[in-house]
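TL;DR need structure tokens for one chain.
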Amino acid sequence: MMIKVMTLTALILTSLTFNATAAMDPKLEQTLIDICKTGVTDNIYKFNDTMHKYRINKRNIFPKLVCNGEGFHEFALSHGSNLVAKKIAPFVDPVADSV
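>> reply
TL;DR here they are.
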């Protein structure tokens, strides 16, 4: 009986630990959402403004940023935002973006 209680307690604590580490900071989440929103506007001014507002390092962010399951470059292209896609193209890994 004691082993069952200890096992159950361990499982509950483990699941709580994983849920706590999977949570994203709300400010970071909002930043990433705002960046993704600029990917559908095709407005270079708004894109640049967002990049400066959040101090985004394009070399670090764009190879890794995913919006709705697509890499940011592919996301921008699929929404007709060719100007923004062209602007970030030098920062995107072509192999990772096509997967």
